[in-house]
Design a protein that fits this description.
Elements: E1 5-13, E2 27-30, H1 40-54, E3 67-71, E4 80-88
Antiparallel strand pairs: 1-2, 1-4, 3-4
């Protein structure tokens, strides 16, 4: 299996107050599980990009191969998120002993 990385999501800017309560500076980390507190619209729209960074991919339009910048799908709020690859994820066993 290829190496997996954790991905940090940071809210960098927003046009208007977010109805989900997100504020500039909010941070979330995605590893094996979804991050608590991140609205489903934001998470769903970023999931393909998060997955790309988690498994070692990058985006040709970004100067830094470990970073991506994406917006939420709400055109009235326009939350702008930076996602960045962190160090390789640690293997965590669940309660059944699975990694």
């Amino acid at each position: 299996m290829s190496e997996r990385y954790d991905v940090k999501i940071t809210l960098k800017s927003q046009l208007k107050k977010c109805p989900a309560g997100h504020k500039v500076g909010d941070e979330f980390v995605v590893g094996r599980y979804t991050p608590g507190g991140l609205c489903m619209g934001d998470f769903a729209s970023m999931l393909p990009y998060i997955t790309t960074l988690r498994f070692g991919g990058s985006f040709p339009w970004e100067k830094n191969p470990d970073v991506g910048t994406f917006c939420c799908p709400d055109p009235k709020v326009v939350n702008v998120f930076r996602i960045e690859r962190l160090s390789p994820a640690r293997e965590i066993e669940d309660s059944a002993g699975n990694k």
